[in-house]
Batch of 4 targets.
Target 1
Amino acid sequence: MTSATAAPILSSSHLLGIEGLSAGEITGLLDLADEYVRLNRAADKKSALLRGRTLINLFFEASTRTQSSFELAGKRLGADVLNMSVKTSSVSKGETLLDTAATLNAMRPDILIVRHPDSGAAELLARKLDCSVVNAGDGSHEHPTQALLDALTIRRRGRKFEGLIVAICGDIAHSRVARSNIHLLSRMGARVRLIAPRTLLPADADRFGADIFTDMREGLKGVDIVMMLRLQLERMAGALVPSTREYFRFYGLDHEKLKLAKPSALVMHPGPMNRGVEIDSAVADDLEVSVIQEQVENGVAIRMAVLDALNRGLALEGRNAP
Amino acid sequence: MTKRLAFRNARLIDPASGLDARGGLLVENGKIADVGPRLFNDADPHDPEVIDCKGLVLAPGLIDMRVFTGEPGSEHRETLASAGEAAAAGGVTTIIVMPNTDPVLDEPSLVDFIRRRAAATSKVRVLPMAALTHALEGERMTEIGLLHEAGAVAFTDGDRSIANTRVLRRALSYAATFDVLIVGHAEDPELSANTAMNEGEFATRLGIPAAPPAAETMIVERDIRLVELTGARYHFAQISCRASLEAIVAAKARGLPITCGVSAHHLSLNELDVGSYFTFRKVKPPLRSEADRAEMADGIAEGHIDVIVSSHDPQAADTKRLPFAQAAFGTVGLETLLPAALTIHHNGRANLGHILKTMTEAPARILGLDSGKLAKGTPADMVLFDPDEPFVLDPADLHSRARNTPFEGRKFQGRAKMTFVGGECVFDRAKEKKR
């Protein structure tokens, strides 16, 4: 695979969200990721595609899973990877972010991976920096590589997106994973259902083309895919949900509720899981239905595909060409 | 063996169907097996047990949506058993008890306790409302789903308004998930803090700290906005002034799922009845002006107010025999609910069926109960009464453990003669000894 001759996949030099992607771009990334799944399973997992490139992992929020996935993706493609974990100070966040941007720019990175607790932070950095920016999760806005790895997991299990019924359950209101998945799945022709108590549904959720259910049993009837979302524990204790035991009773996925979905239904979770809160261990660990570990494996592959695709753009522009 | 009880020669009033006619009723195994204008008119029923109603009114047993007891926590004021005695004597067959107990009913196990305890000790049906926020503190919502499954018929902080609008919005929104009923007390906590009666000339003369009707209306208006935002089903437990009623009438006209109630004492008494610091007439919300009282009676007559409640709140000497400002709020009311409500009928403002509807069909509909009507297959909960029987209220005749009635010596017309719950006679005035 040599990037200089490979066909471009993404029209933008950044990956800030799914909302701006076409079905063709999504399919292109998934096809490419399939190749990287194969590479990752080989004895020699290393490629020299990004040799000489510098990749910075800039994480303003702790995330072992996403950060190590991007780090591994960059290293397997031969890039130099720098991890920067920045604790957000509560004062003058905006200033700090722009100051950081200026500092980073001076280091001449090629690709910046950014995770930030505020929605729109990745876009702000993309405007201020000269490199490609990948949004690894911004506030409650988007987490495009998560949606892509979910799609890859679904597709590799032989499911077609057209007509597929996907239920996304849990804290929709605060979830960037939900937003990215809604965009991706609807763009690819799947039917999305959102299942949550009203306190965890965003305003006008129905305007996103999804069907809304507050009764999980109703919402799970006949679905092909059940995507559980992580419920952040600070939303508990009476603020938006009365207690974890009540949440589990009405919105936790156990085998009894799962029976309402199609017999072939798959269960997904972006991790990390709250066992006994949003998902019963008996379901999470049931390899007949749970594809949670496959999601992690596919996460590395999809991130390699994204880096590859962005590198093609860099090569075409001739910017920082190796 | 089938257990049967026949009623003949009754004036059947069923507000749910609009029936008001002479007829009979048959009870089989605790349920109404037959009812109608021609039943047992010509031939006597062949049942071992027949009650000749002698033309008296046989109506669905009353459902009182607002009853405070002292169980658990203040059993010296009232137990579920003594409240049941009072209810039965008042023709009330279902009481909805408030969560303002000690401990507060904010746990599924406590709701379960009330149901079991009441089933074991009370003559009438007892349905608990659960707290909407933990310990009624207005900060964290309770486990609405689990409490509902445990048997809570609605959610309320009783006689407290939730001050924090964000907490209330979330609680209403979460409640809408389960389509459960929220019951609100409308009284701005700050404006009404440390007040004891209605603001106005009379309070000024008495020198009693007072709250204006606006303290109620602004919460009514606020909560209407939150209902509009969240879609929750909402019932104002009791209102007391014209402006509140106007706001609710307008909200209903907009199609919002809102209902409201008024207490029997707010229909019968005004602020002047506080007289010389009569603490049994210190209530929440306070007794209002005569104009507001008349507006409440109009609201009932015109059907804008859905429900009449007793707001039964037993208090003992330790909480009432105090200077007015220090005394507790509340009056007993289970045994005066029917007579006080009938006053509106006797004043020529509404027919009997319409008044009874506010204490039978309306609360049953709002709470989703299968009782409150004379229909085949429904529980045989009934009250037999003579609407014209005159009597003077003697507190010594009351069955409640507390005697803090605001109606001592009041002349009324109409009170329960017999009360039936599930076809069993739980009260028979003919068998009453002078207490």
Target 2
Amino acid sequence: MPARFEPRSTEVSEPFWRATRERRLIMQWCRPCEHVVFYPREVCPRCLGSNLEWRDSPGTGTVYAFSVHYRTGSPELMDRTPYVVALVDLTEGARLMTNIVGCEPDDIGVGMGVQVTWELLADGRHLPLFEPSTGSHGDSSRR
Amino acid sequence: MGERTLRGATAVVGVADAASPTGELPNRGRALEAAMIAEALDDAGLTLRDVDGVCHVGPSTYVGSSLGLAEYLGIRPVFTEGTNVGGSSYEVHLEHAAAAIATGLCEVVVCTYAETPRGDRNRGIDSEMPLWIGYHPEAEWEAPFGLWQPMGPYALAASRHMAQYGTTPEQLAQIAVSTRQWAAMNPRARYQSPITVEDVIDSPVLLSPLHRLDCCLVTDGAGAFVLTSAERAADLAKPPAYVLGAASCHDHDMISQMPDITVTAGAVSGRRAFDMAGITTADVDVLMAYDSFTITALLHLEDLGFCAKGEGGSFVEDGKLGPGGSLPMNTNGGGLSYTHPGMYGMFLVVEAVRQLRGECDSRQVPGATVAVAHGAGGALSAMGTVVLGTREAL
């Protein structure tokens, strides 16, 4: 049983996954639009142009939404429940799905500051997960 | 180009649905679909020979499902519709069929759906559709993180709605409670015993913040409707349920790509359908709003304009959605308590039509002249809104 459902990359996303081997988070940008594009695409969804480039991401953001999974439909994650699935808004504007780790589920709140951390996959790539920002005090609005 | 409206041009003239308190049906597949079509045509006073258009999407079918259905029935339709946008497919089919009839492409369209997850499990039939075939972005950007489908996207939406607007678990629970009150008056509903807000809150949290009783059922179910021109409808067996407005909109596929997880594309489809119908929320006597989860229904109430964005929680907490309330919603008991085979939108249309005909016995909303069927498909992705009305509402 693999430790994770292994993300299947495509030609266009291959640079993203290659960077994760070095624990680097990179994001695709449209040069003319000066706009971050996620998930990676062959063309910019704003201008349909293909003048795209990869830039390093600071790897910081905030929790947009989250759900503590007490149950799972993923056999490989059965022994990890409860785990936290979240949508994180990166500082540069992209929103991605991830897991929040490195804290108790009860300590997570919408709006909480997070930073990227990495989980090694069997093939040497890493999965970008997020943990509370260093010095983060959580969010007083959490429930 | 003339006035671009479908208002009053077509009507639903026949309906049928099947569900059971056991959650199981004796038939499945094409046999069940054919039985629903026969029942709906009989309800309309039409026969298969009258049918020249077919709409179909269902489980375990990817391509050409309307072809297979028509072949099974031995008919040769000149209008075919197989759009699959998940649970709202049947509202979208109705919209497209109404446009086809209004423009003269065809005259009598049948739409059917059957899915039997419980019966199939008992029979050892693996009828579950994979979430994707071949490459899908979800397999790269969502599945590795263990988002549990189909509940996960709705749990995320509920968490955001609660944080952004102060919506409480108790307010969401009230939707399940009001819906169960309606189910108690539907002898075919899966669950008919009353529940309380405490019952919902005390049920296990599966995916925070949603409890087990915030979730729809998994049951066998099937249905069909027949749509025809207003002219033809006038001579048929039952009072027509005229299509006053119909519209659809989708704004993402994966939940992680939804622009604002608290605002659905129903804000667009609802406005367009209501505008076409020339109605406001105050005109709606019965609201059939897709309730895969309590949060789904709450988002519909806001996006259709029954209350302001963010105020859905306080809007529902007085029980106004239940019997005797000011906004009767999901009077068949909904996906939460009546039936939910997987793509529930069919049952919204069927119940809306029956309410307009006055066929709903103890759960009948007295004097209903306008009913709305609002379907949701995918991961809050695709919304289809249909406004139906009696002759008085024309």
Target 3
Amino acid sequence: MKIRGERDDLADIFSRANRAVAARSALPVLQGLLCEASGGVLTVTGTDLEVTVTTSGPVEVMEEGRAVVPGRLLAESVRKMPPGVVTMSVGGGDAEIQGKGPRFTLRTLTLDDFPNLDMSPVDGVEVDGEELVNGLNQVVVASSSDSARPILTGVLFEPSDEGLRLVATDSYRLSVRDLPGMGSIGSGLVPARGLRELARTIGGPKVQAGMASREAVFSSDRGSLRLRLIEGSFPKYRSLLPESYPAQVLMEKEALLEALGRVTLVAEDHIPVRLKIGNGGVEVNVTRQDVGGEVEHLDAEFVGPEEILIAFNPRYLSDGVSVIAGDKVRIRMIDSLKASVLDDGGDGGFLYLLMPVRI
Amino acid sequence: MFEKDQAHILHADLDSFFASVEQRDNPALRGRPVIVGGGVVLAASYEAKAYGVYTPMSGRQARKVCPQAIVVEPRFSAYVEASKAVFEVFEHTTPMVEGLSIDEAFLDVGGLRRVSGTPTEIAVRLRDQVRKEVGLPITVGVARTKFLAKVASAVAKPDGLLVVPPEEEIAFLHPLPVERLWGVGPITAAKLHNAGVFSVGEVAALPSKWLASLLGPAAGHHLHALAHNRDPRPVHVGRRRRSIGSQRAFGRVPKTAQDLEAIVVGLVDRISRRLRGGHRVGRTVVLRLRFDDFSRATRSQTLTTATANTETILQTARELLSDVMPLIEERGITLVGVAIANLDDDCAVQLALPFDKHHRTELDLAIDDLRTRFGNKAVTRAVLLKSDDSWEFPLLPDPGPTDTDR
């Protein structure tokens, strides 16, 4: 196999596919990128068997062929070439990357070891790529990275009256986003780790999205992202959304985020931030034994029968606040031991349910 | 503070604690040699100790030196209860109580003269109260420092009281054998003996540098200070544990992954219950290993939120174990331990959404309750059914939160 292309084009194709490659893997071949050159197109696939990214682009193909080349080295060596044309040729167990001047020789991995991935196309629907990515970014913050509970590492895709509902939870917070008009994407529990890569791997103005029996498949003119669905049933979350709230407070989003930024100077994330919420506004307060504390006051509009003292994990709170669209944050509360709900105060189609810290 | 100039620290130590509880509860055992524990001697009454029985000694050897001894099975719940009752007496004596273990504590009674009398009067009354209210003999040593108070109680045993007034400290300390010094075990003692040093007085006569070159700088400095009667450690009230752990040693019998996992399950069950009992939560799960060649290794994982949940801790411990299995297979294993570190009071706990509450917190609480009411064996796990429970040991009552910790 031998190809030639512009450094920037090749670097883009390799590095996007390499985002699926795990830093460590039990199977050595999964550290590699499968490169295929044929018919004037270079197609590159990286996978960790859960997340698979395929990218492609037009290049000058001098000799068709396939090879598996160590992913990080390949992507980085092309990226660090001087600007201009880069040639890649494979033969005799080596891949040679030749730029203007520098030449890398990389040992290839065994082609036959590369897993045989199902790459069959899936009937998807075309949706606004930016809207989908924005919606996903709002929910993935609530997903868990704890591999011991795989169900919580996914985002639930669920068709609803509103269109498509995305839900994620790590059992301490839960975020829900409704995307109108996207209901026909289908349902499934999709790994959040892969969804986080959507924008950077294949994101674009238009994205085709659909569900196969075991995979969620996203594709655009930049390539495809295939995510193996997580098996198991997602927690029944609907009954957790409170029907009414005796108290609520509305404040400036930026002001709260800045305050939380100051709080985290003092507190590690397991030290709760205390909010005293009443008619005078919100008093934000954190104290940490042996270190000190911070206290400040935020203006806010409060509606409720009496002042509430409630505490949260500061990181969980700022995660939720930062993904709310708009300038305002509304926190609706029942009491200091039950879940509060954060949203933008209107009907932005998004809410973030957060359990407090008992103090 | 003129009161600091007199002996004000009490070291109170129950005599042959487990055996004394047995003798208290069964009159037929009184005045006779009693051994608690059949496999390994956990405690021996003074009558048995007179025959040369000591702890830990193997049961077989103990029966050889004292064939007439009565061997009884340990009743840990009775010991925990007795310990609690004794600590209650301590707490009523002074607020300054530092528990050392299930059966001993330091008490600082300085400053109580007007309220309770002199330290000697307090010590006499304390022994009397423990005898009357709990029915157990206790020995008390009184001195100006913790170290001397502890030595005094050891010298005064059994069922005794020894006060070391400040002016008699050196005369009391210097004739003692070096083994009495805190931190001197068989190895250090042998080094000192080889150098011709047998008494504390002889240690005191040596220059600090000489001791440091013989025993290392830290140990040398430490012994020099103790031999000169310098021990500035105050009595710490409610010193909190920084970690809670449990471990199990076994011979060089090959252990399968399943055996090890069952052991870890048992250890996690135990320590997570202790966490909940002490209203603590922890963030870091530590797996300790000792290999055939006595080298050790630890592996740890820190969780995102502090927990006392059995299942969460077990999950993490299992992952740590499976990661380290190749090393275990290579080097052989003789000890497994699990500890929870990074402890916090559970007064600041991240609450979870109620969707799996039934599976976790409530299950833990229900099992804890069953075991408290019907004994530790009332509910067990399938993997533990076959395992022997000779390693079951009493749950030490953890000191509850105190004001000084906050």
Target 4
Amino acid sequence: MPVTELDDTLVERVRAGDKSAFEVLMHRYEDKVFRLAVGMMKNREDALDAVQDAFLNVYRKIDTFRGESAFSTWLYKVSLNSVYMKLRSRSRHEQTEPLEVLEKILDPAKTRILMPPAGWSTRADNELLRKELSLKLRDAVEALPEEYRAIFTLREVEELSNQEVADILGLSLAATKTRLHRARLFLRQRLSKYLQGDAA
Amino acid sequence: MSHQHGPSEPTCRQVFELLSEFVDGELSVDDRESLARHLGACPPCEEFLKTFEAARSLCRESLLEQMPPELKERLRSFLRDQIFKA
């Protein structure tokens, strides 16, 4: 069983012209970059386009990676830029909720805290309902503004730390945590409305 | 959503604002304990936390997927043409 090479070692090999090292990096990260792209774009064909651009950009720009952060942080940053470019080119960003909706969620003066209906836990255990809810949540995630969607996907799906997410998005730690909380509240609110039967 | 709470206990609104830090394990021991006490004594907040956690979990599940093999092949083919054959 070969020892797994560190990212930094592979990056050095790529810089030295070893294309097979890039292939190893690509295989290591393709699922992660794809999940980020699908989380941001939903449509798999769009996501594939973004992933292709992302890896091409990573290869072409690898000399600009200075090693000041983990390679994975830099790769996510480059990948997210590819996703944003794709979203811009297809005007998908126009389908998101206005930012004000998210802003209101943590504004006590404007927020009515929705409470779950009785029997929620029992209903959520039903497998079919869970699948339906899962689809509804994909829609809800897509309704998040891009930055909130990226934060939610990187934090909850890729399980990166708040600091790693902040580094990728170039945000402060405090801003990242606030936006993550708003995104979670927004999604809970969407789910709650669905369970109450008035948001389908 | 409110109930009687002691002077050192967070209000329902404060609980609402601290939920992410609570579930991420980022609160101090004291804050975590007082929030847990509030949750134990406040059914609406406890229910809110359950749906907050359930929404995260369901959403995560819905987004957790591996890249399908046919898309991996298309990605690799694209990069072979763009990089490896160049």
